[in-house]
Design brief:
By secondary structure, the protein is of the alpha+beta class. It has 4 domains: 14-79 and 86-127, no CATH class; 152-225 and 235-281, no CATH class; 295-396, no CATH class; 400-486, no CATH class. Helix content is 37%, strand content 10%. It contains 13 helices and 15 strands. The chain has helices at 33-51, 64-76, 112-127, 141-149, 186-198, 206-222, 259-276, 320-323, 326-344, 350-362, 383-396, 400-418, 426-437; strands at 14-15, 23-24, 80-82, 99-103, 106-109, 168-172, 241-246, 252-256, 314-315, 370-373, 379-381, 450-452, 459-461, 475-476, 485-486. A 4-stranded mixed β-sheet has the order 1-5-4-2. It has a 4-stranded mixed β-sheet with strand order 3-6-7-8. The protein has a 3-stranded mixed β-sheet with strand order 9-10-11. A hairpin with a 5-residue loop joins β7 (241-246) and β8 (252-256). α1 (33-51) runs antiparallel to α7 (259-276), α5 packs antiparallel against α6 and α6 packs across α7 (259-276). The chain is globular, with a radius of gyration of 25 Å. 34% of the residues are buried.
Length: 509
């Protein structure tokens, strides 16, 4: 269905059950998926008023523009998607939705006018609460305020805009040609990798999701994207969000989003990653990273051959055909999105991550299968167990980029160690060890310990499935003359004060 097509049900009728893309106004809306996004969007709009120094609206007429934008987002879907990704994360906001209200035991489909009236009242009631937990002097709000109130590249003439490596390329949802052209775009890959690392089980409230979107916006400017030597003289200092618009068979035009629009795009993108990782169904009081299907619900290996693999199937085997198959490319992207969760998960939760990826492929739109060629030369579905084993293998493998990041981290820590105090005092030793290993100072109680994830300078909250490092984690054994370190409880990617990588419980030997 086209994103701009009319909804299946006209307004005023009643239906038995809401669909996941419907937005419920009134009773029964607390945990519905689209309502969760509605909370994020309303909070983001409130944040924009604050960072711009504008008073919050007090009259219904002052909210006309904002409410219209929200209604368009819910009923028509998002305008843009990130280039270079094949439906990763699952494009929840590309489909349409409706506004519903409880009508006895059924649900009534609201017209745009009715939805606007109720949304306006909902937003005004929320704005009456003057207490704000946002401190504009703290990151990432401080940097976001600077972005919004400063000059941006969006004021440039469209004819003068030329995409650069660090820019993120956004495609209009109806654009079917641009995705393959920008698979290696540095800015788009940066957004994807930052979202994969920062969207965790802690990202379970509107405040945390909006903060994550702002942290990605900030990280876009801080992450060092490799640029060709010949292009350095003409490269923009700021990473931009550029929208590609096809104007003819062989011609395109470019426009740049301002910081407020870019933040709005990231709020939706973070929410889709949040849904992809199924954080919305996780009980956050337990260290659980994904839903496990009962054995009786697992797809079993098939003895019936598949006539022809589709672009949504994942093919087993080696060589260019399987590696370049669209389904395998999407499979690798889904694995990359979930790999940080796999690294942080405790041992008993790691299989859940793999099974969740298998479920994502099988429940895609359209659904995919895991196929292997038999001795007769025909394709057969291998079932969920074998698919989960292949997925676990992919989760354990590090990409070449990750290997380079780890090598660069070791070198950076070695150089940093040379600049540290060497007076021999306990304080300097503690600072050296804490800084080198990447641990927080556990001498002071912290509500949410954080680590710096490999390859980025953004703070990473510990996953609920990850063991917090105990005090005095790295120490020599009390007995014997061995120099072996006790690494029990260390976080993934830990290093010692020499910059050497430590073997932890998260590594596979």
């Amino acid at each position: 269905m086209s994103r701009r097509a009319k909804t299946d049900k006209p307004s005023g009728v009643t239906i038995e059950e809401p669909q996941e893309r419907d937005c419920i106004l009134g009773e029964g809306s607390a945990s519905h998926k689209t309502n969760l996004l509605l909370q994020d969007v309303i909070l983001y709009q409130k944040l924009l008023w604050e960072v711009r120094g504008q008073a919050a609206p007090t009259k219904e007429s002052d909210l006309d523009e904002v409410v219209t934008l929200v209604i368009d987002l819910i009923t028509k879907g998002k305008q843009y998607e990130l280039a270079g990704l094949k439906d990763v994360p699952r494009p929840f906001m590309k489909s349409q939705g409706r506004f519903l209200a409880k009508d006895g035991k059924a649900w009534k489909v609201l017209s745009d006018a009715e939805a606007k009236k109720q949304l306006t009242k909902l937003m005004l009631d929320g704005l009456k609460d003057e207490a704000s937990s946002i401190d504009l002097n703290e990151p990432p709000y401080k940097e976001f305020a600077a972005f919004v109130n400063g000059k941006t590249d969006s004021t440039a003439e469209e004819d003068a805009i030329k995409p650069e490596t660090k820019d993120a390329i956004l495609l209009k949802c109806e654009d079917s040609q641009g995705d393959k052209l920008y698979e290696q775009q540095g800015g788009s890959k940066t957004i994807f990798h930052l979202a994969s690392q920062l969207v965790t089980t802690f990202t379970n409230t509107p405040e945390r999701r909006v903060e994550t979107a702002l942290a990605i916006l900030k990280g876009m400017q801080e992450v060092d994207v490799p640029v060709e030597e010949k292009d350095k003289a003409t490269t923009s200092k700021e990473a931009r969000f550029l929208v590609r618009t096809a104007t003819g068979e062989d011609s395109v035009s470019w426009s740049a989003l301002d910081s407020a629009e870019a933040g709005g795009f990231l709020v939706v993108f973070v929410f889709e990653v949040f849904l992809e990782k199924e954080i919305h169904i996780i009980n956050t009081t337990t260290p659980y990273l994904g839903g496990i299907e009962n054995d009786k619900n697992l797809t079993q290996p098939s003895k019936d051959p598949v006539s022809e693999p589709t672009d949504h199937d994942v093919l087993f085997g080696r060589g260019g055909m399987t590696n370049s198959h669209p389904g395998n490319r999407r499979f690798r992207d889904v694995i990359a999105l979930h790999r940080p969760d796999y690294i942080r998960a405790i041992k008993m939760d790691k299989p859940n991550v793999a099974r969740k990826i298998v479920k994502a492929i099988r429940m895609g739109d359209p659904p995919g299968r895991f196929l292997k060629k038999g001795e007769d030369g025909r394709w057969y579905d291998v079932g969920d167990r074998t698919a989960a084993e292949k997925t676990s293998q992919g989760l354990r493998e590090r990409s070449n980029a990750e290997k380079r990041q780890r090598s660069a981290l070791r070198e950076a820590l070695r150089i940093r160690r040379q600049d540290m105090p060497t007076d021999g005092s306990p304080a300097s030793k503690k600072a050296k060890l804490t800084d080198a290993v990447g641990l927080p100072d556990l001498g002071v109680a912290t509500a949410a310990p954080i680590l710096n994830y490999v390859g980025t300078n953004l703070a990473m909250p510990l996953s609920l499935g990850m063991k917090a490092p105990p005090k005095n984690t790295v120490k020599k054994k009390d007995k014997g003359d061995s120099d072996e370190l006790n690494t029990e409880g260390l976080p993934p990617n830990a290093v010692d004060e020499e910059g050497n990588i430590l073997v932890t419980d998260y590594d596979i030997l």
